[in-house]
Prior knowledge:
Blueprint: H1 3-13, E1 16-17, H2 18-28, H3 37-49, E2 53-58, E3 64-68, H4 70-81, H5 93-101, H6 109-136, H7 143-186, H8 195-206
Antiparallel strand pairs: 1-3, 2-3
Amino acid sequence: MSIRHSLLALLQDQPRYGYQLRVEFEDRTGSTWPLNIGQVYTTLDRLERDGLVRNDGGDGAGHVVYSITDAGKAEVQGWFATPVERSNPPRNELAIKLALAVTLPGVDVGSIIQAQRVASMRALQDYTKSRRDTAANQRSADTAWLLVLDSLIFQTEAEVRWLDLCEARMVQLAQTAGTQGAVRNAGTAKNGVTAEEAAPFTADIRR
Length: 207
């Protein structure tokens, strides 16, 4: 998430101080991605250093107000116009967890998938209810929050489908392992000699 560009976008609307920026950002995104106030001021310091915002001084109530510069406006307009890059996808903790689980002995991957599916379905129900309630009493200011909710719903639905695929793949792997095990067992002779162990003797007979 680009906090830098998000703050610039809000300052393009009007000058604000740090706490106002945090409140505006969380209001418009339904507090889905809470901002730390220290992070806000650190980002503002960097934006000022880079000439993208200016410090307009105090507002008389102990707040330092910032406004966007022409360079900052060009920066945020470029951000809006440029597609989000997918070359470096953000870390997905769930994908990392499952990728490690399937490579480590003694980890019950099926239980991980099932527990996550329950949590994801619960989240999907909550998002859907929130969207339905918001849409039923929609105000013009709710449009931004509805967009975020739609995104969360689609992402969670995709996650559930992905978990179903992961589970199907685990079942397929188990079945494949079972089939291979049965083949190995079928190669065991009555005297307890396996097909692999009997291979040298078979080669001798062929000679």
